[in-house]
Amino acid sequence: MAVNACRSESVQMRAFQFLPIDGLAPYVDRIWGWESVRGERVDLPVLLPGTGAELYFHYRTPFRRSVGGGAPETCSVAHLFYIRQQPLELLSSDDVGFVAVRFRAGMIHRFVDMPGRDMMDRALSAQDLWGAAGQELAWRVVGAETPSARLLLIQRFLAERLSRAAPDIVFEHAMGMLYGDPANLAIDRLTDCVGLGRRQLERRFARIAGQTPVEIRSLGRLQKTVRALMLDESARTADAALAYGYYDQAHFIRHFRELVAVSPQRYLREARARTHFYNTSRRVGSMLMAPSHL
What we know:
Layout: E1 13-19, E2 28-36, E3 46-47, E4 53-58, E5 64-67, E6 73-74, E7 78-81, E8 88-90, E9 97-103, H1 116-119, E10 123-125, H2 126-143, H3 147-163, H4 169-180, H5 187-194, H6 198-208, H7 213-231, H8 237-243, H9 249-260, H10 264-271, E11 288-289
């Protein structure tokens, strides 16, 4: 199923997205991917800090990335992005082919034992996350001959990891609330809803996510504002900023500059000339069901 992800009509890309199986649906938003026409250059995006976590499996050439203007690095064939404090630039490629798992806010911790502070702004391999089992999964996905086979391997593995998890329900509920309404949710109201004091909640967030609730809320505001502006080029920056919790346009610009080190106007101008990973709304009617015979 096509994903609204390619900015230029000259970029020929097979794009798809699937709903996860029922057992993973509370924790995984979607499974999606791209496959380019071989030999055609694809200008990949600069990924901004946000609240999400995304697991990529490359059956063609893995991403090459640059962080903070440093030397390019090649990602593993299977890796996780958990971008929180600085943008990550993906370099152009003429051989794109990947399947990605987009986790719901806070739910990556159902599948890995590593705390957020150790995952932050790194490209952790499947082996880093799950040892030899992760490495075996990565190469089995690379060797799979069909999209269906890849989906089955990935979902079976995640379902097995899920069964071993010891979740923190309070943290997950709080993360869901922060992501769902970063514009209006006061932290005091959040603590009342989850039944914890502010310090208790902050300690829990620091232990699991590596950030405070205030930091997560700020990232949610930025993430949703930029997404709105990328998916609707006619949207006014001031209107989007106000809709997602900024006091005014100047507040959004200051926050954006603090995290990205350029103005939002410059980022948007350059980003709109490339591809991007801001998928369209998750609607059952617009997505295919992933194979469920695990």
